[in-house]
Structures are given as structure tokens and as C-alpha cells.
Records
---
Amino acid sequence: MEDFPKRQIDVPLNGAIVKRHPQRLHRAVSSEEVEANLGAPDATATGFNGDQPLTWVGATHKLDAFFTSGRLYALSLENRASGHSVTVNEPMDLWGP
């Protein structure tokens, strides 16, 4: 992932809330890779065009991972207390089949 240093958000890390910069995806990982790291999602759906959003809900944050053709193209992290969220997208040079 790559930093965008001008903005910081609160994210959970080892049981604490720390400030981090929104980032962009360096590579598109598969839904299997994400589930292997995070465990089974709390919610899943399938879009009409085959897109697959997966959601993990914690005590303080909600993470949405968006997949197309089994490949991650965006993440959204929401602070459940404040309602603020940040979305991280894959770089445009990775777009396409």
C-alpha cells in the first residue's frame, strides 16, 4: 500500500486506535487471500454484475472489501463511533480484466 501523507484517519492496531494515512492498493489480491487473513466475513453479497462486497464488523470499526472477478479493487474502513470512513482504491493502471 502507498501513503497519502496529508490526511490521517483513526484505525485499530493491536487493540489501540492509532493515526494512519489513507493508502492505495499496490496489487489486487483475491477474496481468498483476504479471508485467510481476516477470517470469514460478517456479511456477503453478490452484485448483478458479479461484484462481491464482503464486510467485517468489529466493536469500533467496519471494513468493506469490494471484489470484481475475485480480485480486490477497493476497501472502505468506517469508524463506527464517528461514522467517518475512508475508501482505498486500486491504482488506475490495475483497472481492467
---
Amino acid sequence: MEGLGLGCFLSGSSGFMKYLYKGVLTLLASSFSSFAIKDPSLGSRNPLTGSRKEKGLKNAARITNLMRAQSRASTAAQKLVKHIKSGNVQQAYKEANRVLKNLATSIKR
């Protein structure tokens, strides 16, 4: 996606991209979780049901670009983006929970 400002970072170190990927993915997946009920600003970024959908769609586009740049992207993240693009709310919620569980596991390591 043009205009997202990731071009200068995609050619940089892979360490930076890893943390950018995890941060944006956490934000996107959290907008589908129970955290979104407690924090309205987070829930409003949900790309399918939020009041500020465009913010969530930008995050989905960023994740898509970062997955293309990285050789390793989780299957759950790929499925989450696929369900967001197709508008499948129920499956997107399931995949978002899976993504959050995977991220929590990877942080403990």
C-alpha cells in the first residue's frame, strides 16, 4: 500500500520489522478481543465493527505489507487478514484470539 510510510523501514534491519509486526498485529487483534470492550478507543479501531474502521483497515494493510516483507508470518495472522478482507466477522474474532494467544506465548519465550 502506498502512503503508509513503511518503505523506508522495510529495507532496514529485521529486528525493527519484527517488533513493528508484533506491535501492529497486537493492536489489530486486540481490537477484536475483550480488551476492546474495556478500552473504547481500541474497540473503535476494529476494521469490521468499529466506529473508526479506517484505522483498523490501515493496520490490516500494514500487516499485509509486513507479511510480504518477512519470510515468516504466522498462519493465524494470515487468516485474520484474510477474514478481515472478506468481511467475515465471526472467523476474524476466532483468528484474533488465536493471534493473541500466539503472541502471549512468544513473549514468554
---
Amino acid sequence: MKESQIVEGFSASKTEERISSVEKMKKILTYIYLLPEKEMFEAQKKIVEHVKKIKTNYPNYSDYKIYHVLSGSTIRDSRTDVEENDFPGEYSVENFLENLAREYGFDNVS
């Protein structure tokens, strides 16, 4: 088996995609915090609302790494049971942030 094939049950390319996706989301959040004050607070309010929606519908929200990216919280290093995938459908953090980026005019983040 090639090195690039299986890494803890995932292909290396899928692992790299998730890392790239998380880095992109972190960049979008950075751009949001650099917006003029009024727009930044407006965007932050939308983020808080999305976080509340996730928390209401997913009791295990803190098990998702992507939740911690969005909320700015941290995961203890000792945790090994963290979910690497995004939430589905309307709860997707990646889709939410990409839509927010488009709304505020920086949709070319990569």
C-alpha cells in the first residue's frame, strides 16, 4: 500500500483537504475580524447565531473540530475522539463561512 493511500482510515488527500478547508475557514474568520467595526460586529452576530443553532440541534457539538474553529474555542490536546467532519446541510460551518465571505466581498479566499 502506498503512503498516500490510507492514514488512520482516511486517504492522505482527504486529510489534506480537511486541513486546507480548516485553514481557509480560519482565514475567512481573520478577514471578518479585520472588517470595519460596524460590519465586523454584524458578521460576529451572525456567527453567534449560527453557533447557537448548532448547539441547539447537536448536543454533541463540542465533539466537532469545526465547531471549535467557528466559535474560537479550543479542544484539549488529550482528546482523541474529535469529529473531523463538518455538520451536514444548513448547519455546515464551511458553507456558512463561505456565504459570509461572499456577503462581505472576500469570496476569493483560498
